[in-house]
Amino acid sequence: MGNEEKKRRELERRVLEKVEQAIASVHNAKDVDQVIVALYSVAVCLFPLHLHSLSGSVDEKYRQELWALEAPSGDDKTEWCNVFYRGAAFRAFARVLLYDVASDWLACFAASARKHVYDVFFLNGCAAEIVQVVVPCLQLSGSGGHDSSAVCLNAERLLVLCLLENDLILQIAREFAGGAQFQDLSHEQLKQAISKVSQLVTSIPDKARLGAPTSLSSHLFFERLTTQLLQGAEEWDMMLVDETAAAEDTHMDGSIRFVGEAFARICRRGSADVLLSEMIPRILGQVRSVLSSNSVLAISEIFDSKPGFRFWLKIMEAVNDSHSVERIAEELLHQLAVQNINDVEGYWILWILFGRIFKRQTPIRFTFVEKFLLWKIFPTCCLRWIIYFAVLECTPNSASLRSYNAHGLSNTVHRLVVAWSRKEFVQSSPIEQQAYVTAALGLCLEKMGKEDLDATKDGLHSILQGISCRLESPVYLIRKMASAIAFVFSKIIDPQNPLYLDDTSREETIDWEFGLATRRKGALTTPVHDGDERTVERENSSSTLSGKQIQKGEENGVGNAAKARRKKESAFTLIDPDEVIDPATINESTFYEDESDHASEDSETSSDSLLQPYDLTDDDADLKRKFSQLVDVVGALRKSDDAEGVEKALDVAEKLIRASPDELKYMAGDLAKTLVQVRCSDVTVEGEEESAEEKRQKAVVALIVTCPLESLDSLNKLLYSPNVDISQRVMILDIMIDAAQELASARILKSEHRPKALISSTSDQPWFMPRNTGPPGAGPWKEISSTGTPLNWSYSYERELPSKAGQIKRGKTRRWSLRTAIQDNQMEWSQNSFPQYAAAFMLPAMQGYDKKRHGVDLLGRDFIVLGKLIYMLGVCIKCAAMHPEASVLASPLLDMLRSRY
Amino acid sequence: MSKRPPPDPVAVLRGHRASVTDASFHPTKNILFTGSTDGELRIWDTVQHRTISSSWVHSAAHGIISVVAGGENRVISQGRDGTIKYWDIGEAGLSRSPLITIKTNSYHFCKLSLLNNPHAEVEPTEVVKNHQESELSGGNMSSTELESDKKVEGSIYVAAAGEDLSVVELWDVNTGEKLIKLPNHSINSTKARGMCMAVKAFLPPESHGYVNVMSGYEDGSMVWWDIRNPASPMTCVKFHSEPVLSLSFDNLCGGGVSGSADEKIVMFTLDPSTGSCLVKKEIILERPGIGGTSIRPDGKIFATAGWDHRVRIYDYRKGNALAILKYHHATCNAVSFSDNSKLMASSSEDTTVALWEIYPPRN
């Protein structure tokens, strides 16, 4: 142990000695070759150099000297090298190199000499040290006897060479990861060293002089820097053998700390956009590859476990500067917005980068849920990502939406709603801000259920307040915001019955950008990486063409040659064959032409009576909707907002029902319910309520008459349903009364008559005798003598017919005679078809009339209905009188009446 | 000054049992051909207003999309069953079976377009044919009898949407051969435009006898092809926001009219020498949807068949409205003018065809 230490001391001494010698000889040098030899004497001890590469650039007389220098063997060289860079030797020597040699001698160095005995010291050594000595040279002031411009020039050249061309930054990152020179530093010291180095590195563009190489300008430099840093971080991640260290969250390796520190400083220096434009393609690529891989692992697990991915989770933590993190997040969102990113990708990028710190650091939480929702303005797609990430804390996949953070959601909605509903906010904040906060609120509300809303502190109140103060606004856009929120809000309350405050827009999906998007997008396209920059430039250069045209032009790359040829042909009009011409611009160009055309023709056509226009008035009376199907009628009646449609439907309903189409049976119940629930007073113009009411009643009566069982079933249900009011109950009973009466006096207007051959040769009876067909039990035909006039051209016959069950007989015979007589007879003929339905009329209505239910209280408040009910029952019994059904129904009716009085 | 009320139809031809999709006048005789969605092709005498013959030429399930008089005694019918049939009209109406049945295998709504002046341009179209022969992989199928036939009849070409619905195909009706596809390469540049909804083949005088085709697509764009360059179109324009449903050009090919599902009719000019197609006038309609347009052969007026049951007449030169003809009580499908400009026929979904005499030429 002691021996080792001693050996090291010894080596240190020898190195210092060597360096001292070299420095002395540089100071005393009279000739450039002497300097080269001196430098070489040090270099040869440290690096594997070949003399041949150098000998050409050194004068003959010094060559011997070069040959004479002895060098340590390979292993010793690395040891020498370590000692040289870690001790004071390098600093001292570098000072000489950077100041004295650079200002006095370097210009005289041959290129190969410069490379092998000068640059070599800065390329192969400890990167962190090198940065620390070279960067201060950039700011050399004139004093000290050095040629400051030469020194600076050289420093710039070295920085470009080292940092940019030889990836020294990457090497620094590696060194911090576990380089020998930082091993014995304490945690605090390491932190300081990292901070110092990253500060120096990121200050380079600022320190560079005006005439410095362009690669040291902040944009290019930071771009290159970011690439190397990211590469370093990835490499660190790949080499991270110690799994536990990775899993242990607080552990911060030097390397990742350095990357984070450098990122923070880049952001502080205002180059977050450059940083992000390097970062986004990498992370996006990885996210997309993971998303498309269909791996069984969740994406979070992949990023947690896969080498090369894990560093993303830590990188923002390493930045360790909430302002920079905020800048990064903001810039990230803006840049992602202009790329084609879906919600899932957007969410995951946010989660990967900010997921950990969002959980742990309050300022970051604040940034996302407060600043980004209320103060900043992002495009709507970003807003959605923010909401998924910071509010709902779940992926945008619908499957996982169930597990969203309900508490966070209602808290956020509370905050948003409070801000949104403040009158001052409506009055004084810019419209973009309002649109953004509205969108944030709306998107949050869209995700809410009813119970979430209930959990939100005075949510309902504030929303209504916000809507009402917006609706008063003279600005259309603000009113539109109110109606959008009202729509979303109403969908929470009752998803079946959305509220449209605005008649013009009926779309189910709301444009949360409120038409402001285009403007914002235009502003956004500027800070993007080179690919997009090109398009932006092109757009600027050809401002008359729309973006669409450019896109089109790019798409149709085929046949360019042909295009060019034709372009030449049509040089005058410059028509691009693949171009989509905007008619508006063309209209403009041909406008004048057109006008003159008109003028010249007017005189011509005024004499030409050929083309005198006819009357051009046009009304759309014939285009109005006509209902010919009951389904359409039901549909129209349900649309209570389309008054005209309801009115029309009511007009035709009775006629259609009376026609008794086949499908009536199946929709009778539905139709009855719909008809009863139509609000006639709402749909008609004032003064015409009566007629609409009448039409409705007639339609329902017709419905009961044509299709009694089905429609009565639903009407009786409605009668005691809590959803109808007294007037509707009374109306139902009225309708039933009318229907019962109509059924009781039903007339059979048409007897069954089929066209039959009047003269039948096959039968044995004379042709004028009526046929023997008829119901079983009919008697034989007998000729009856005509009554009245003796001049009788016709024969009359009669026969006995058995009576049908349940029919009242008005006469005992049917007469067969001339047609008019038949009709007369049959007009007389009526059949009471009510009794068979009497039970369906009466029993359900009698059942449970005395139960007090929600909104139904016949014995108390709604006594009028009870009166009507009893009246209806009475009419029913009357209509069924003289039929067996009456006696059956009488006893329950009497029971009912008795039970209460 | 009170204006004259718009005229009523001079005759209404009833007899179809389903929506009448298309009507076409015979070039010289007083005959009108109409086709309906149940596949019935009727031939009418336009003087006596009677049916001369009626036959089911396409299956009832598919129906007829369009009917075009194809010469002195020929008629072409296009069905939605993927066929185009070429018929001979004899003394007693239609022949029993078609002269040629072309199986296009395309099932769409695009009415075919007969090349507008086949008689005068036999020679150039021959050139077209020779030009295209290299394209035909099946070898030269035209036998000598077809050659002789062609001398009598002239070549009759029709353009229609092809099997790939965004491609326009040009067929020789005499031989039943497919001549060319537009675009003809496998990377279909018009795919993004959607189905081809309307097509018009024409032969501008400047094109030296090479057929030009204008096709209108579902996205409202129109593309102008010169078959010398079938790979890429000459001009693309987009006047409409909805599918282009009909296209018609005047006889000089100096301009035309397009109707679409949106609420405008666009009158445009064509310049074949530069390949430019520019809007001359946009006519905004109250109610959207123009199913058919037709420019009268004398170029004075044009008519549109509207979804709003109305036939509208406009001055073709100035583009101002002249009349709104209300007779049909269902969507109008097509309008057509007779070659002597005296009669106009409108066919409608209400199964009738109305004949109108509107602004008849003075002599």
Write up this protein.
- The complex is a heterodimer of chains A (901) and B (363).
- Chain A has 901 residues and is an all-alpha fold.
- In chain A, 65% of the residues lie in helices and 1% in strands.
- The relative contact order of chain A is 0.03.
- With 363 residues, chain B is mainly β.
- Chain B has 2 helices and 29 strands.
- Chain B has helices at residues 122-133, 144-153, and strands at 11-13, 20-25, 31-36, 40-45, 50-56, 64-69, 74-79, 83-90, 93-94, 100-103, 113-114, 157-161, 168-172, 177-182, 196-202, 212-217, 221-226, 235-238, 244-249, 255-260, 264-271, 276-284, 290-295, 301-306, 310-315, 321-326, 332-337, 344-348, 353-356.
- In chain B, the strands form 7 sheets. In chain B, strands 6, 7, 8, 9 and 10 form a 5-stranded antiparallel β-sheet that branches. In chain B, strands 1-29-28-27 form a 4-stranded antiparallel β-sheet, with no helix packed on it.
- In chain B, β2 (20-25) and β3 form a beta hairpin.
- Chain B is globular.
- Chain A binds chain B through residues 555-556, 558-559, 562-563, 566, 569-570, 572-573, 575, 577-581, 583, 586-587, 589-590, 594, 597-598, 601, 605, 610-616, 618, 620, 622-623, and chain B through 2-7, 187, 189, 192, 221, 229, 231-239, 266, 269, 271, 273-282, 286-287, 300-301, 308-310, 315, 317-318, 320-324, 326, 329, 359, 362.
- Chain B: This is Protein DECREASED SIZE EXCLUSION LIMIT 1.
- Chain B: Keywords: Repeat, WD repeat.
- Chain B: It comes from Sesamum indicum.
